Amino acid sequence: MPDIEKAYDMLVDYITGKTVPNVGVEEIRQRLEQYLVEIKGYQKKDIRVDADIEIDIKGSRYASQLDLVVSVENRSVMVIKCAAGSLESREREVVSASRIFESKPIPYAVVSDSKTAVVFDTVSGKKIDHGLHAIPSRAAAEEILSTIEPALISEKRKEKEKIIFRSYDSMNVNVQRNF
Predict the structure, then answer these.
(1) DSSP secondary-structure letter at 96?
(2) Strands 75-82, 108-112: parallel, antiparallel or unpaired by DSSP?
(3) What residue spans of the chain are helical by DSSP H?
(4) Could you report the average pLDDT of every consecutive run of 10 residues in the chain (179 residues)?
(5) Which of 7, 87, 127, 165 is the least buried, fewest Cβ under 10 Å from its Cβ?
């Protein structure tokens, strides 16, 4: 029996201008990208789409992508996980991603369905606020980055966060990287 590829609707990514398949949470991501630029004041160049992440867990390589990583003046300020349905089911994943994506934790972790959002302090893991209004604007992000010192987490904690991230992320089956 011949392999039959499913034809997917395509759309143009708001940030990159690339044509992407409309699978999974792609429409949610497009609305969030537009919201970040048009309402929160970020520049398109501040937002990385499908940011590659590669981690080593006891000699085993795990590669994936983060939906959005937002930076200001070349310093990451938040990781955003786009989710359909229950945001609570993706909270721990995005906090872990924010802790391991760079050598030092990124200040904020956000999960959103483009209608609401939950914002976390990455280091403490505590919820700061909820609602789209809670996502820091570019001006607020500039101020935050100028006033906080990048935190460190122990290597032991970082290894645990890698396992948590991989566990949640590996359940993301309906994503572009799998097509």
Answers:
(1) H
(2) parallel
(3) 26-38, 91-100, 138-147, 155-169
(4) 65 95 92 98 98 96 96 96 91 96 96 97 95 97 90 92 94 56
(5) 7
Residue 48: strand pairing partners: 69
Lookup: tokens for 171: 């359940």
Strand pairing class (19-21; 47-57): unpaired
Q: Which domains does the chain have, with CATH numbers?
A: 10-178 (3.90.1570.30)
Look at residue 151 in the predicted model and tell me its pLDDT: 84
Contacts (Cβ under 8 Å, ≥6 apart) of 122 = 95, 98, 99, 105, 106, 107, 108, 109, 151
Is 171:89 a contact under the CB 8 Å cutoff?
Answer: no
